[in-house]
Inverse folding.
């Protein structure tokens, strides 16, 4: 592990406490410069932790430039790719601010994004917050508001299960079962009490897992409908599409085994396993044909 650090005192005297932004990168050179520029300009951010998982596309050099210019930026470079969950936990452990914002490297926050989330978090505590996500054309991302996976529906109509739920008009903060891991905002105390992200997930489904555990522990899960953030999706996954598909389906199977399998009959467990991996084969085939 390589680490580039500068001494930086955390100023939590501002009303509400400081925010630590945690960014996990992998082959993120196309967006990380803009992402960090925006985070450095974001109000309330007192620490920025970038954890890189074995990038070789210039990501490291870009992050190092920001770290050299801004003492709030600390950089951890993993020699391999242990996964998104491991990286998030590393970044959280390397920081000390009372609030944590887990930010994807292809997410572009506005100057007031995190302060507005902090205000919502204080008003609705305890809560794990997500945001309204839009792409470069301004189209909303259905993954911003989600329900738990319905494995029964998966068996009845394979490939047709929809996790997204509609936005409720007039609600600034909308409670949902799960939010997207593209941006998650939570009090450090709550995150630590949950034990952080489950490192058994390499990538994908770890956000569903954290949200479910949060709800079980009495923490609300909600979307700040009035906080909109640009998300340039899939930048890191374009270089290794089959790897991503494999771990996406592996993560879903882990989620099922962890939360659902013990309540399901053997034929159902076998059926869910078959549907998940049949879908992987189809998705992998499409990727290869492209």
């Amino acid at each position: 592990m390589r680490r580039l650090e500068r001494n930086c005192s955390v100023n939590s005297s501002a009303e509400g406490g400081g925010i630590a932004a945690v960014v996990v990168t992998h082959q993120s050179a196309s967006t990380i410069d803009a992402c960090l520029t925006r985070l450095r300009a974001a109000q309330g951010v007192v620490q920025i932790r970038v954890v890189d998982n074995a990038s070789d596309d210039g990501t490291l050099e870009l992050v190092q430039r920001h770290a050299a210019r801004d003492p709030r930026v600390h950089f951890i470079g993993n020699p391999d790719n242990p996964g998104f969950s491991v990286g998030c936990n590393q970044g959280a452990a390397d920081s000390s601010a009372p609030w944590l914002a887990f930010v994807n490297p292809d997410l572009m926050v506005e100057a007031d994004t995190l302060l507005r989330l902090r205000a919502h978090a204080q008003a609705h505590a305890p809560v794990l917050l997500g945001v309204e996500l839009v792409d470069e054309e301004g189209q909303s991302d259905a993954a911003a508001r989600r329900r738990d996976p319905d494995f029964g529906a998966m068996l009845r109509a394979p490939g047709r299960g929809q996790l997204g739920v509609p936005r409720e008009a007039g609600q600034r903060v909308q409670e949902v079962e799960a939010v997207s891991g593209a941006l998650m905002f939570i009090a450090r105390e709550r995150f630590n009490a949950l034990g952080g992200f489950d490192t058994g997930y390499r990538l994908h489904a770890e956000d569903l897992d954290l949200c479910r555990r949060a709800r079980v522990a009495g923490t609300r899960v909600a979307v700040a409908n009035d906080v909109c953030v640009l998300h340039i999706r899939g930048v890191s996954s374009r270089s290794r599409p089959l790897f991503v598909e494999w771990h996406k389906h592996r993560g879903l199977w882990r989620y099922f085994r962890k939360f659902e399998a013990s309540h399901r009959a053997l034929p159902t467990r076998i059926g869910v396993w078959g549907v998940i991996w049949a879908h992987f084969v189809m998705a992998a085939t499409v990727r290869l044909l492209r």
